Amino acid sequence: LAYMVAPEARGRNLARLSLQALGDWAIAELGLGRLQVQIDPDNAASHSVAQRAGYLREGVLRSSFVLHGEPKDCVIYSRLPSDPAPPRAPLRPGRPPAPRRATGPASGAR
Q1: Which of 46, 57, 67, 93 has the highest CB neighbour number within 10 Å of its CB?
Q2: Separation CA 90–CA 102 (nearest Å)
Q3: pLDDT band at 25 (very low <50, low <70, confident <90, very high)
Q4: Distance between alpha carbon 99 and the CA centroid of its chain, in Å?
Q5: pTM of the full structure
Q6: 24, burial (CB in 10 Å: exposed 0-12, middle 13-18, buried 19+)
């Protein structure tokens, strides 16, 4: 499983709620016995999402893939049907969009 949230939508529990709902569905409807996410060790926000969505940290896979010619580690989190359900969280209200800056020549300029 993977998740990515646009910067303007962050802080609303979208990733957590989506990961929980997808996990619930995959276990209940597909009968999967294990769900797994792999996270960059330096991505603190993704670690928090996985933990709050009920995934348990299992460990680090050292040099598990290559990115731009460099070996990279990843942290493994998993969720099993027997794991306790995480507490439900509300969807937080969105932030108003930031005003857009005009680009190009000013309106009416010729």
Answers
A1: 46
A2: 35
A3: very high
A4: 27
A5: 0.76
A6: middle
